[in-house]
Amino acid sequence: MTPSYPDEAMPDEALYTLLCKYLLHEADAEERAWVEAWVTEDPGNVALLGSLRKVLDTATSNERLVEAKTNDAWLQLSGKIEEKPVLIAVKPAARFTWLKIAAVLLIALGAGWWFLIGKRPQQVYAGPTNATLADGSNIRLSASSRLEVARGFNQRNRKVSLTGTATFDVSGSAENPFVITLGHTDVKVLGTHFMINYEPGTAVLKVHVTTGKVMVIDHDKADSVVLTDGMLLQKDNARPAFRIAAHVTDMTKKSLSFRDTPLEEVLHTITEVYDIKVEVVNMDLLKLPVRADFTGESADDVIRSLALMLSADYEKINDRQYKLK
Predict the structure, then answer these.
(1) Distance between CA atoms of 55 and 104, rounded to whole angstroms?
(2) Do 286 and 264 meet the contact criterion of CB atoms below 8 Å apart?
(3) Fewer CB within 10 Å: C terminus or N terminus of the chain?
(4) Where are the beta strands (DSSP E) in 203-302?
(5) Residue 294 forms beta bridges with which residues?
(6) Which of 96, 118, 140 is the last residue of a domain?
(7) Distance between CA atoms of 93 and 290, rounded to whole angstroms?
(8) 96 shares a domain with 143
């Protein structure tokens, strides 16, 4: 009989031992029921059980040929056996005991069978939910989002992977940084409060830093950028390069805050957040300071407000293009 582990993963040694017993038909009814329930919890569990089955099949079916040792004493006793070496097929016992198999597997794992557990996460969270990790980090997952916590979290690493949208509150550690994997992009946290939206199907990535500092690393393009307070990074299939905007206080609400910010910088943020183009006819406008807050306004409202503050005129060319003059 095996103990249950309702709130944490079973230790590796106990798990492998139990799975070996199950595959060798030496588990009792309660152990079999536990394994069969465990298999349904995650597709990765099915893959792990299949990998173990292949290893066990190989271990229990091998035959080896051993050269028999002949000597004078044996010849004197047998008298009828020829002196040439004899190859004798020596089969292992019909089945190793599950304990020996488990020991062999653990040794093999140490020598390179790490792929059996591979990238199986230590914990998985599905949104909507709030999660507090072992290092004290707090993550708020939105609906249809998934967070996977790497094995050895807060011991060997502080790595997680994310699909969907989540808000993070993370403590910094130069010795053991918090790393979020988003496909082929990593976000390395240097201590901060921030939000991420990652949709792998369309390669949409948004990272917004409320306070603190993070580094975003694109391994495919060997590119990286450091984001600080109020900065927003975006990219997608249509525009795969990093696009950066500042003065963003809330990514989801499109909250922007400008304090005597030159219009040129304001327009850079607005064009990135609203995905529009703004042509400035009078270049002197670009140096004028802007003091304003916007939350949830449409692009039309924002351009109209800017024109009014700067005593300028504006023209809407189409749904995504404006002209200030």
Answers:
(1) 10
(2) yes
(3) N
(4) 204-218, 223-228, 232-235, 243-245, 248-250, 255-262, 277-280, 289-295
(5) 256
(6) 118
(7) 83
(8) no
